[in-house]
Specification:
126 residues; 3 helices; binds 2'-deoxycytidine-5'-monophosphate
Length: 126
């Protein structure tokens, strides 16, 4: 399983720009990564966000609908609350905070598009 986090603060959502693989590089995603053996999905997401963004988070509610990825992986997204730190692109090309319009207009990886309607409703409208 792959887990991804929707970090929303002040009506804005954090998007992260992938640096790899070549076919996904430059596209934007909810940051996250693979669940390792013995980890809970929530624990894995907290670890991934610590490693990739340098922040401490608490994982909240799951977003609706898991997404099937290539290779038999399943992608699941969660709401995430920032506890401490300022997100930094430690593993991504760039980070960006988007409102509803910015989310709809972003060049998102295909899998993450499933959550655009649900996420837009949480964000500042233009
Ligand atoms: N992935 C995705 N959307 C995300 C996070 C990851 O589609 N928000 C996909 C990209 C890879 C796989 O999950 O196929 C593993 O991600 P990573 O390469 O970041 O470990």
């Amino acid at each position: 399983m792959v887990v991804a986090g929707a970090l929303v603060a002040n009506g804005l959502l954090l998007l992260a720009q992938r640096s790899r693989p070549p076919e996904l590089a430059g596209m934007w995603e909810l940051p996250g990564g693979k669940v390792e053996p013995g980890e809970s999905p929530e624990g894995a997401l907290e670890r991934e966000l610590r490693e990739e963004l340098g922040v401490e988070t608490v994982v909240g509610q799951q977003l609706a609908g898991d997404v099937d990825l290539a290779g038999g992986l399943v992608l699941r997204a969660y709401r995430v609350e920032l506890m401490s730190g300022t997100p930094a692109p430690l593993d991504h090309s760039d980070l960006r905070w988007v409102d509803a319009r910015g989310l709809v207009g972003a060049d998102l990886v295909d899998a993450d598009r499933a959550w655009v309607p649900e996420l837009s409703g949480m964000l500042r409208q233009p």
